[in-house]
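One such given next:
>
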Amino acid sequence: MVVNKLALSQATIKRIPVYYRTVKALQQSGVKRVRSDRLSKLVHIAPATIRRDFSNFGDLGRSGYSYSVDLLAEVFGELLEVHSEEQMLLVGCGNLGRALLTNNFRRNPDLSIVMGFDTDPSLIGTTIAGIPIYNLATLSEKIRPGMHTAIVCVPSSAQASVISQLEANGITAILTFAPKPVPAQPGTKIRYIDLTSELQALLFVDHQSKLVQEPKTPLKQS
């Protein structure tokens, strides 16, 4: 199935991994077909939004007959280019990095952090959740052939130099938790995660919903 990825909205693109993870779980549970209303309860996305997203990917199902779980898994797997396990490295093994190493995408067998890097002597040479932690200075020696994805959990002050070092070693896809954009090579794709902004946006939406739900005080009759 050929899908024009450039025509997909950013919102739809962000939901594809959620759909894929969910239908893979259904597939592993032996579920063969799923309706949009059931899928909605699993992913917490409105059924109308799910149907609109799915309409971008051709004929995935007929109205009232639900969707084939196997077909959904195949289509979303192709969109995400999930052909084999994506092995990644992580830079910055402090509290946040340690949490990511420990969790290590357990719900998605196609993603795996296989090595960590740091500059802290107390971490170098240790393992976290079975994953070896190396000196960042040895990145070029330790990186595996074909690796092109990295997660960065370093302070903003160190982000530019770390990303430059990653690029020099063939890393082209970077997820970073330091939200300040930094210069990068044209072929490098960087996704910035700003936890503070995400939380503030969530609180704003929550506060707005409470204002809408509050009953209006009736006007007193004079």
